[in-house]
Amino acid sequence: MRPVIILQSFILLVLANGAPLIAKKFLGERYSYPLDGNVSFVDSRPVFGRSKTIRGIVLAGVATTAAAPVIGLRWEIGLLVGGFAMAGDLFSSFCKRRLGLPTSSRASGLDQVPEALLPLLACRELLALTAADILVCVVMFAAGEVVLSRLLYAFRLRDRPY
Questions:
Q1: What does the H/E/C string look like for the chain?
Q2: How confident is the model at residue 66 (pLDDT cuts 50, 70, 90)?
């Protein structure tokens, strides 16, 4: 295991998933266009839900792309992490809508694993990540989200404390 790479990856994951929350706090509803265009899937439920916005996807990519060189990684890695973290987040939201869970509801594991695992797998070769590196980073992200969630709620960056 390489702790520096794990920490760099973890930082980018946190940024990718935190950028949409920060944007919502400071921009409110401005530029907040639902990614699914408020279209329903064949089951008559939203595809992703109103909280998944074009603004959030774009800002996650911008934040990670800009931050990667600051923490010693190539900007392309930041872009990959941001893009695949958002793909994982969209996958989670899609699954939660199919399960009938409301927007922003909690689904432990489903909320954390795809948005950490997909970007790490996408960068596996570029960062020479081992299976152990990926496992440690996913566990750190999942545990960190539970802890950070309460902190983000206290600072009113999250609507709910989970």
A1: CCHHHHHHHHHHHHHHHHHHHHHHHHHCCCCCCECCCCCECCCCCECCCCCCEHHHHHHHHHHHHHHHHHCCCCHHHHHHHHHHHHHHHHHHHHHHHHCCCCCCCCCCCCCCHHHHHHHHHHCHHHHCCCHHHHHHHHHHHHHHHHHHHHHHHHCCCCCCCC
A2: very high
